[in-house]
Amino acid sequence: MQYIYSNELQNQYRMNDKDFTRNRKLKFPKILLFLMNRITKTLSIEIDNIIGVFNKDKKLKTDDHFTKSAFVQSRKKIDYKVFDVLSKKLTDEFYTDNTYKKWHKFRVLAVDGSLLTLPNTKELMEVFGSNQPHTKEPIIQGRVSLLYDVLNGFVIDSTLQPLSRTERDLAIDHIKHATPGDLILYDRGYPSFDMMYQHKKRDIDFLFRVQTNFNKETKEFLNSTDKTKLIELSPSITCLKEKGYTGDETIIVRMNKVVLPNGTVEILISSLLDKDEYRNNIFKDLYFKRWNVEIFYNELKNKLKVGNFSGNSEQVILQDFYSTIFVSNIQTLLIEEINDELKEQKGTKKYNYKVNNNVSYGILKNRIIEIFFTEQEMSKTIFQIKELLKKHTIPIRPNRKNERDTRKFDNRKRPKTLTNQRDAI
Hints:
Layout: H1 7-13, H2 28-36, H3 43-54, H4 68-75, H5 81-97, E1 107-117, H6 122-128, E2 141-149, E3 155-161, H7 167-175, E4 182-186, H8 193-202, E5 205-210, H9 216-222, E6 228-233, H10 237-243, E7 251-259, E8 265-270, H11 283-288, H12 291-302, H13 314-344, E9 352-355, H14 357-364, H15 367-372, H16 378-389, E10 393-396
Parallel strand pairs: 1-4, 4-5
Antiparallel strand pairs: 1-2, 2-3, 5-8, 6-7, 7-8, 9-10
């Protein structure tokens, strides 16, 4: 990852051609590292911390303190897209150089969206919008969408957009980052003829959970004794008007029934047409793998604290968001290899064990810099960090189920986003 040091990266992702041309204390790679290290406390404390980390390494050593103003002005010179590029470079290298987990022949991905509450400023209101724009204190939110590898734990593609962008629109953007050999899982908010046809055009396989009244075929299928059935779909009148289809486009899909423990029947629609290769009884477990993207959102919000922004401008919000995604992929790269080793070392233990994700994020604080910039070999630094992570493991208890509280948001209060004060400890 010496790519961070390259002039090519700096020249491509600085905001102005004149930026980072003078000999300043805060150079391009230092700012990247500072942002990757997650600014969660008051900026003065974070600056003192990062200077101490830099001074451990001769390559980054600086004896002079820099001010909050200097940092704020310097970060304005960096395009947030640099973190998205670095994250994709990291995952591309992983899939090129490593053997990774698959289901049958597929890399299994999931698309899911969420809302992220943002600081209440006029600028962010204009850029991202609000679900209650006319209330006295509107809640400003951005729409997050992820394309996530549910078996290997990597974010393949991510975006933070205004509320005016729909989940389906963002999902179609994600499809561009998938390749033939991928299978993408979707929840009930996504299915449409256009979504399925977009996959067909790109030779990407899919599986959607659909409402039982999705169309007349699903209604008939629900009331039949069939467990699986092939049907031909064509664009609806609305789709013809809005998406520009001619009406000649069709797609063959497969419907499957899945019975939940409470007896509820769900319908899945997929491109997995071969009934011999993909038997009906595998679809319930296949769809359940989508739950891993829900788990990742919990980690993103509550452990990596992606909503704990280090500033209030659009540029800062996007820098914080994409740098957090990059850090999450670095963390995955480290712990997945350890988890595989722990699984092989089970021995006589009752349970398999895995690294405690919450602790691992804390351990990575400051050590991210050691990974990328150190006088010793990177492999040695990574080995040392892995040995430390192995000391913090938790058991994997199979078949644990928690009932979903569907009323947990009934009495929720307005989310708090601190704009003027950050944690000092």
